[in-house]
Design brief:
Chain lengths: ~300, ~300
């Protein structure tokens, strides 16, 4: 009892053990499927069939990756996804920033209408069909622009950036104005240097969103040369899974390429970029809490 | 920016204010233009719900047909079935999926090994940043006929299960994979709420000799109720949606009967063989209106019960 009050070392009790066991199992439940995917991608067909429980292949091979990289679709996928990220994220940031800046300070006619108009789209939207028909009438379907323009502003991110801008001190901006700085100057030379954490956070979030883009591409883009990586992955996994259902394991052994291996190699290749930026994302989880607060 | 002399005539001053702030409008112009074209443009396209769409005449030129589309919609058995499926799946989501991040946050809060906590949290948050295409691929792999789970079952002498192709398994599969993907991320918001609780409350409870479980139920949970209530309201705003990304990627023809939620139905009728865009826009409008109504209703309800809502 007394130790409890002091808040120092408490004895390990039932709650501790329960919490530890549950969380450890949960963690394993997430790690094992990834490990399994990695090991299958490096395994040979024979080993996969002989020993499906393996977590590490005994004779790792790059054969599945070779097969995958020989598939031209994966390269179109990479090219398209890189283009979407490269063009999409700056577009996201620019549009979100100007709106967040313009609505964060001062008072001018129509400010409330603009803010209300932006927030209203969270509550209610036209849905995918009018958007599709509009893209079609604008001649944007089958162009990358349809995907880039479909998700250009995330209202949640706008709200976060706006509240960050609002928290900056007015005095700095006022004094810049007295020196004759215009709006663009104030935004780029005063506000943005002070907002590095939020810029970094939202850039990373937009980056992941763009990398994971597949829905709009599914609907707007029919051209097989413009499929983003996610959709390429989808077709690789789906198409061979049909084969997988009809052929027995024995029959599969005779096939030249190891389907499951190629599929998992495709999964790993698609995950890798997200994994690379995840540590940076994590650094910004403090802001992420806010993103979570409004996004979830 | 804040010049308001008050002596100037009102109409005159509005124009003057606009002129004076022209730079602000100019800087926002790209953003506003985007919203007008790509958010409000499609909203005006909702008029198709009351029109007979013809590709030649376009959205604005197509002839009006009153509520005809809606009478067809409400007579369509597959529409009614998809509404039922959506509600059924979402009821399950509220019951089995909504509490998971809360429980996880409580578990995290009770984990006293600081470093281990960080590792666990990192692992559990990661899947949130993967698309459903990736998650579905991983899930299909481990649940496939000769995948990890069935191999384990076989190793213990059990009978292998066709997880992906079983209608009975589909709903649990949705809840489990959703928890797998996003519970770790979802817990962050509740953990933030927990960390905001005044330490004094726990100290007072310690003095009274309260057990850890008592502290969880008497202090932690009551204190995060406002957050829970906000999240609940948000969830209600998705009552007619039900996670297109997830269902689209996890479903297959074998589970069509239990997986055709409203969003899937809209997708199938809009981008299938013979689309009738007036009809599908009517369905889509119905969906948006119901979602919006439930969000507002849940918000009112939460406030009436003393919880926190979304709109101040």
């Amino acid at each position: 009892m007394n130790q409890d009050i002091a808040g120092k070392k408490r004895r390990i009790d039932g709650v501790d053990i329960f919490v530890f066991v549950v969380l450890t199992l949960w963690t394993l439940l997430i790690i094992v499927p990834f490990l399994n995917a990695v090991s299958i991608s490096f395994a040979t067909q024979k080993e996969y069939v002989d020993n499906p429980l393996m977590l590490f292949p005994s004779q790792p091979t790059f054969r599945s990756y070779e097969m995958l990289l020989n598939d031209y679709r994966i390269w179109t996928g990479f090219r398209t996804s890189f283009l979407i990220v490269l063009l999409g994220v700056p577009l996201n940031m620019l549009l979100t920033m100007v709106l967040a800046y313009g609505t964060s300070r001062g008072s001018y006619p129509g400010k409330k209408i603009i803010i209300g108009g932006i927030l209203f789209t969270m509550l209610f939207n036209g849905g995918i069909i009018p958007l599709y028909l509009q893209m079609k009438e604008m001649g944007l379907t089958n162009h990358l622009w349809s995907v880039l323009l479909a998700g250009s502003v995330n209202v949640f991110y706008f709200v976060i950036m706006r509240s960050y801008f609002q928290s900056l001190p007015d005095s700095l901006i006022e004094s810049a104005r007295l020196d004759g700085a215009g709006e663009w100057r104030v935004l780029f030379h005063i506000i943005l240097p002070l907002s590095k954490p939020i810029i970094a956070t939202l850039t990373l979030f937009y980056l992941v969103d763009r990398w994971n883009e597949w829905y709009h591409a599914l609907i707007f883009i029919r051209d097989s040369n413009l499929q983003p990586l996610q959709l390429v992955l989808r077709s690789i996994v789906m198409e061979s899974s049909i084969v997988n259902n009809v052929t027995s394991a024995a029959a599969m052994e005779n096939m030249q390429n190891f389907d499951m291996g190629v599929k998992m190699a495709a999964v790993i290749v698609t995950i890798l970029p997200v994994m690379c930026i995840f540590p940076f994302l994590q650094k910004h989880f403090a802001q992420g809490v806010m993103v979570g607060a409004v996004k979830a | 920016m804040k010049g308001r002399t008050g002596t100037v005539k009102k109409k005159d001053s509005v124009f003057r204010e606009i002129w004076k702030n022209k730079a602000v409008y100019m800087i926002m112009l790209p953003g506003i233009a985007w919203f007008v074209i790509f958010a409000y443009g499609p909203m005006s396209g909702l008029q198709l719900a009351f029109k007979e769409y013809s590709a030649k005449l376009g959205i604005w030129g197509s002839p009006w047909c009153g509520l005809e589309n809606f009478t067809y919609v409400f007579r369509d058995p597959s529409f009614l079935r998809s509404v039922g499926t959506t509600l059924w799946i979402n009821a399950g989501r509220l019951l089995f999926q909504f509490p998971v991040p809360i429980l996880l946050a409580l578990l995290f809060n009770e984990l006293r090994l600081k470093r281990y906590k960080k590792v666990v949290q990192t692992v559990l948050t990661f899947p949130q940043f993967l698309s459903w295409v990736i998650v579905a691929s991983i899930v299909i792999n481990i649940l496939s006929y000769d995948g990890l789970v069935n191999s384990i079952i076989a190793a213990f002498g059990g009978e292998t299960i066709n997880f992906m192709g079983s209608a009975r398994m589909f709903q649990p599969l949705l809840y489990i994979t959703e928890g797998w993907k996003s519970a770790g991320w979802g817990a962050i918001i509740y953990m933030a709420a927990i960390s905001g609780i005044d330490v004094d409350q726990y100290e007072a409870a310690d003095l009274d000799g309260a057990s850890r479980l008592q502290k969880i139920f008497r202090i932690t949970i009551p204190n995060i109720l406002p957050t829970i209530s906000v999240m609940f309201v948000l969830q209600m705003g998705n009552l007619m949606s039900g996670g297109f990304d997830q269902v689209f990627n996890l479903s297959n023809p074998a589970v069509k009967d239990v997986s055709e939620i409203l969003d899937m139905y809209i997708y199938n009728i809009s981008f299938g063989s013979t689309p009738d865009f007036g009809f599908s826009t009517a369905v889509s409008l119905f969906r948006s209106v119901v979602n919006c109504a439930f969000l507002v209703l849940a918000d009112r309800g939460a406030k009436a019960l003393g919880g926190s809502g979304l709109f101040a």
